[in-house]
Design goal:
By secondary structure, this protein is α/β, with parallel strands linked by helices. Helix content is about 45%, strand content about 10%. An eleven-stranded mixed beta sheet has the order 14-13-12-11-6-5-3-4-2-1-15, sandwiched between helices. It has a two-stranded antiparallel sheet with strand order 7-8. A two-stranded antiparallel ribbon has the order 9-10. Helix 5 runs antiparallel to helix 6 and helix 12 (about 410-425) packs antiparallel against helix 16 (about 475-485). The longest helix is centred in the N-terminal third of the chain and has 44 residues, at about 35-80. It is globular, with a radius of gyration of 33 Å.
């Protein structure tokens, strides 16, 4: 008789004959296991090992895909001058979609086109009977392309008037479209303007009456000279040589020749000390931090326009930071490294030479932004070595940072980072191209008109030669600078960290002297003015005529130009930029004496000049000569 126990025993015997390993029953229902204990214990580890192997392969594929993408983007960036095609396409798509969905706006643009066509036709009719008929549209004040008398003659008057009307219509078509983000609108308007400027009648021989007159007067010799100039420029650019005539302005020979000594050097800076040229000196020295995007000698050009020479002549001991031109080995230098190895290292050295004196610190452009960060961190840490802080065309809030913001969004920065990743730095050619685009009429087309159509070389100047002596930017520093400041505005909003903690500009208690320039494309003066909203210290704000460089290099011998300024003290209410322009005191001439007097009023009485630090070499040093 077969029982349940017999069936169970028979099943166990059958399992033992089939499987060599021991058989165990599941405790819950008594069914046998069909695998050995060793196998059952080993299979999770086997699956885990296989998963890890797959993960390793996945990481390898991820690394490979990253290299492929970055290499492709870097190659494209060389062709586009660092501009991201994806960022440009995104901006135009945003504009096109919103314009396509705005029939009312389309009707308005069509009506504007008809009215401009009628204006142009009416002007053409008047020109047929009145050779000097009044134009139907005037160029913008800064547009000098059509200011010559030759442009008043038929048919060239029609050409340039039609061009300006077309340019105005496209401005209306690319701005004011509802729903388009402000950044995309600015990009589309800027790019459209650049494309239109390429086809300006002033750029072509047959449509430029001034070039035609020159050709007839010289028998075409101007075109021969223009071709020679063009070929020479192309050869120099291909060979990485400076522009024609720049060889006449070499640091240490006829620019950057103020007597001084390099007294300190690390992997990032050389510190130059300039003694006063007076019998007695102010006890507090002046430390100048230039931007690392430029060679320092913009502030020590020729003897007649050297800010350093001017300050030493006013009885100040001046220390100047000269930045090293970074290479691929410096790719991992960060903004914090620039603060620590730059501003703080210089302050420590000066304090060791003059331990009982506070320091007037000044920063130009990016150097001013870095100085503001360092000053805020020092104030937070109760480091009271700064007697005053001067910011020359330096921004601390980047929400209105001018046309440079056209090149700052997530797509553009990612593309630019891939370009820097390839070499470990941003090459000076890419930066120069971006700055030239901001003033293409002045720096590109007017140069091409004079050099290639008219066959004339503009005389080289010390500032133009300095401008061609550009520097590189380390990968991590430039990426961090653009993301933290331009993209995220971390300094103004209290998220930026330095020396282990967050920094806030309202911690600064030293008096501040801030300078803006009226025609600044790099640091618009209204953006520089925002220091009033961020700092609680006494602030003297000065607005000078000129641009980012020419406004700062404002020697007293220069008779043209002027400036306006005010000082805000505790308890005074905030005045916005438009109100400030109305109430500020106006002065003629250079602003340098105003700053010198401001420094002197916050300095002790003159004493014997301090001793020079131990010299490593004569100024201008070695870093400024690196190419």
């Amino acid at each position: 008789m077969t029982t349940d126990a017999t069936i169970a025993q028979t099943d166990e015997q059958r399992a033992e004959r089939t499987f060599s390993g021991p058989v165990q029953s599941y405790p819950s229902h008594g069914f046998p296991r069909l695998a050995s204990t060793a196998f059952l214990e080993a299979w999770p580890s086997a699956f885990l090992a296989a998963e890890r192997a797959i993960d390793r392969d996945s990481h390898g594929y991820a690394a490979l895909s990253d290299v492929v993408d970055r290499s492709l983007h870097a190659s494209v960036a060389h062709l586009t001058g660092g501009l991201s095609p994806a960022a440009m396409a995104g901006a135009y798509w945003d504009w096109a979609v919103h314009l396509a969905s705005s029939p009312g706006r389309q009707m308005l643009l069509a009506e504007k086109a008809m009215r401009k066509t009628w204006r142009f036709a009416s002007y053409a009719w008047r020109c047929a009977f009145q050779p000097n008929a009044a134009p139907c549209i005037e160029p913008l004040p800064q547009d000098k392309r059509f200011s010559g008398e030759a442009w008043r003659q038929w048919p060239y008057a029609l050409l340039y008037q039609g061009f300006l009307l077309n340019q105005q219509w496209w401005h209306n078509a690319t701005t004011g479209i509802g729903g388009v983000t402000k950044q995309h609108e600015n990009v589309v308007e800027f790019a459209s303007r650049q494309l239109l400027d390429m086809f300006s009648p002033s750029n072509f021989l047959l449509t430029n009456p001034e070039a035609l007159q020159r050709t007839l007067a010289t028998g075409g010799v101007n075109l021969v000279y223009g071709l020679q100039n063009f070929l020479e420029d192309m050869e120099r650019r291909a060979g990485g040589k400076p522009p024609v005539g720049a060889e006449a302005f070499m640091p240490g020979q006829n620019v950057a020749i103020t007597p001084g000594k390099v007294i300190y050097r690390n992997r990032l800076i050389e510190l130059i000390q300039y003694g006063p040229s007076t019998e007695k000196a102010r006890p507090e020295p002046v430390l100048i931090t230039p931007a690392w995007i430029m060679k320092y000698y913009i502030l020590d050009l020729s003897p007649h326009n050297s800010l350093v020479r001017f300050l030493t002549g006013q009885g100040f001991t001046v220390f100047m930071i000269s930045w090293r031109n970074p290479s691929a080995e410096d790719r991992d230098l960060t903004m914090e490294a620039y603060r620590r190895l730059g501003v703080m290292a210089a302050l420590d050295l000066i304090s060791s030479l003059m331990p009982d004196q506070k320091i007037h610190a000044a920063g130009y452009c990016l150097g001013g932004t870095l100085l503001a960060i360092a000053a805020a961190a020092m104030a937070r840490d109760n480091d009271e070595r700064l007697k005053s802080v001067t910011l020359l065309a330096a921004q601390t809030d980047f929400t209105e940072a001018g046309e440079l913001t056209l090149f700052v969004n997530e797509s553009q920065l990612d593309f630019l980072e891939d370009l820097m990743w390839e070499h470990g730095y941003l090459d000076s050619k890419e930066m120069a191209g971006a700055f030239q685009l901001l003033r293409s009429n002045d720096l590109v087309w007017s140069y091409a008109h004079k050099s290639y159509l008219m066959g004339e070389r503009e005389p080289m100047t010390d500032m133009r030669a300095w401008n061609a002596d550009a520097t590189r930017m380390p990968y991590k520093m430039h990426s961090g600078y653009l993301r933290l400041l331009f993209l995220n505005n971390d300094l103004a909003e209290g998220r930026l960290r330095a020396n282990g903690g967050a920094v806030a500009l309202h911690d600064i208690r030293a008096p501040i002297f801030a300078v803006g320039t009226e025609r600044d494309h790099i640091a618009p003066w209204r953006s520089v003015y925002k220091i009033h909203l961020l700092a609680d210290a006494e602030i003297t704000f000065l607005l000078t005529s000129g641009g980012h460089n020419a406004g700062i290099v404002s020697e007293p011998e220069k008779k043209r130009g002027g400036y306006r300024f005010t000082t805000r003290v505790d308890g005074e209410h905030y005045a916005d930029p438009e109100e400030w322009v109305r109430i500020a005191a106006v002065r003629e001439g250079s602003w340098w004496p105003e700053w010198s007097a401001w420094l002197a009023a916050r300095s002790g009485p003159p004493v014997a000049p301090p001793a020079m630090g131990p010299a490593l070499c004569d100024a201008p040093g070695t870093y400024v000569l690196q190419s």
